[in-house]
């Protein structure tokens, strides 16, 4: 009989769990991305960004030619003034001279969803970006759980860590996070830009636009911010596995429960509770990096100013509230998403192990 290896079983379980969780929580993901962006719920205009990008490129080339005629001592100062003027005009065009930070913080999820549906074509607009979202989540979860399981097994078999300790879990999570980030960042950029568009931007149009105006580096916008975000998965998975061990011992004789004829096993309940709780803690501790990541992936607004300076600018917009803008929606999305993903992952891995390794 054909036998799957342990790593492949974890790959399949991660992919199925990620796909199910992402599909169920897609509307909340869309609202979260809009709240994190500089444009808010209204989103970007595709035509505006195309024209803006052309003007930025044209102005860049014109000003660089002008700077070549100026002495070296004044180039940096003049270019700095040019950059400040360029992006102050950009923000003025996009937000009519205002950064509506407070407005977007107090929007409820229901009113945000209603605004998107009224302005962008009904309930289907809430699932804008579902295909690139699932296309990003499935390979990223497959890669993550495959490399995580491989790295954890390697660390447990070596003398570097004591087997199944917090250090081993966090290190394996870092390996998995960096692996899927390198492979899947371009898909995440396309997904974010499609969700931020308030027009009918297809995946192909987004890919062509990004490649034409930004090149290969355009598909790796937000890479540095996402690298800081690996700490979130490190916290989440270390906490998840330790909580799972404790709860399995605590509920050793419990068989689960039933609601409306649906049976929920002890394993499903434990994995859901541990997954949701650990994700809540991980997001709460590391959320500001997501604001920076979303901003750097927007069309026509990217500036090479570094992660920490970008974070400082967000803080100047509205203090700590701006740094945690959209976290309520993120919690509503990511906690059930992670609970569903990890519970499904554990169930699939268990069933596949029983089928292929029953001897």
UniProtKB/TrEMBL annotation:
<dbReference type="GO" id="GO:0015218">
    <property type="term" value="F:pyrimidine nucleotide transmembrane transporter activity"/>
</dbReference>
<dbReference type="Pfam" id="PF00153">
    <property type="entry name" value="Mito_carr"/>
</dbReference>
<keyword id="KW-0813">Transport</keyword>
<dbReference type="InterPro" id="IPR023395">
    <property type="entry name" value="MCP_dom_sf"/>
</dbReference>
<protein>
    <submittedName>
        <fullName>Mitochondrial carrier protein</fullName>
    </submittedName>
</protein>
<dbReference type="InterPro" id="IPR049562">
    <property type="entry name" value="SLC25A33/36-like"/>
</dbReference>
<comment type="similarity">
    <text>Belongs to the mitochondrial carrier (TC 2.A.29) family.</text>
</comment>
<dbReference type="GO" id="GO:1990519">
    <property type="term" value="P:pyrimidine nucleotide import into mitochondrion"/>
</dbReference>
<feature type="repeat" description="Solcar">
    <location>
        <begin position="5"/>
        <end position="154"/>
    </location>
</feature>
<keyword id="KW-0677">Repeat</keyword>
<feature type="repeat" description="Solcar">
    <location>
        <begin position="266"/>
        <end position="351"/>
    </location>
</feature>
<keyword id="KW-1133">Transmembrane helix</keyword>
<dbReference type="InterPro" id="IPR018108">
    <property type="entry name" value="MCP_transmembrane"/>
</dbReference>
<feature type="repeat" description="Solcar">
    <location>
        <begin position="164"/>
        <end position="246"/>
    </location>
</feature>
<keyword id="KW-0812">Transmembrane</keyword>
<keyword id="KW-0496">Mitochondrion</keyword>
<dbReference type="GO" id="GO:0005743">
    <property type="term" value="C:mitochondrial inner membrane"/>
</dbReference>
<keyword id="KW-0472">Membrane</keyword>
<dbReference type="InterPro" id="IPR002067">
    <property type="entry name" value="MCP"/>
</dbReference>
<keyword id="KW-0999">Mitochondrion inner membrane</keyword>
């Amino acid at each position: 009989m054909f036998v799957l290896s342990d790593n492949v079983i974890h790959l399949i379980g991660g992919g199925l769990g990620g796909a199910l969780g992402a599909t169920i929580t897609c509307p909340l993901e869309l609202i979260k991305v809009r709240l994190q962006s500089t444009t808010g719920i209204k989103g970007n205009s595709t035509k505006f960004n195309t024209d803006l990008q052309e003007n930025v490129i044209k102005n860049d080339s014109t000003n660089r030619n002008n700077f070549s005629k100026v002495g070296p001592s004044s180039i940096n100062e003049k270019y700095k003034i040019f950059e400040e003027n360029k992006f102050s005009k950009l923000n003025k065009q996009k937000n009519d001279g205002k950064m509506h930070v407070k407005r977007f913080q107090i929007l409820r999820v229901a009113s945000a969803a209603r605004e998107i549906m009224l302005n962008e074509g009904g309930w289907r607009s809430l699932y804008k970006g579902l295909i690139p979202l699932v296309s990003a989540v499935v390979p990223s979860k497959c890669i993550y759980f495959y490399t995580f399981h491989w790295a954890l097994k390697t660390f447990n078999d070596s003398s570097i860590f004591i087997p199944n300790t917090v250090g081993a879990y966090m290190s394996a999570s870092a390996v998995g996070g960096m692996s899927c980030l390198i492979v899947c960042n371009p898909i995440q950029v396309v997904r974010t830009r499609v969700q931020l568009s308030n027009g009918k931007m297809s995946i192909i149009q987004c890919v062509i636009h990004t490649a034409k105006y930004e090149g290969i580096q355009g598909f790796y916008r937000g890479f540095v911010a996402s690298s800081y975000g690996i700490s979130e998965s490190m916290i989440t998975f270390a906490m998840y596995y330790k909580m799972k061990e404790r709860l399995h011992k605590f509920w050793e004789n419990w068989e689960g429960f039933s609601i409306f004829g649906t049976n929920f096993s002890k394993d499903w309940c434990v994995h859901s509770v541990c997954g949701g709780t650990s994700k809540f803690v991980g997001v709460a501790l590391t959320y500001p990096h997501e604001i920076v990541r979303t901003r750097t992936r927007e069309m026509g607004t990217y500036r090479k100013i570094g992660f920490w300076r970008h974070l400082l600018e967000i803080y100047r917009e509205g203090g700590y509230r701006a740094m945690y803008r959209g976290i309520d929606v993120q919690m509503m999305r990511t906690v059930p998403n992670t609970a569903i993903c990890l519970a499904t992952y554990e169930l699939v891995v268990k069933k596949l192990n029983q089928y292929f390794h029953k001897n």
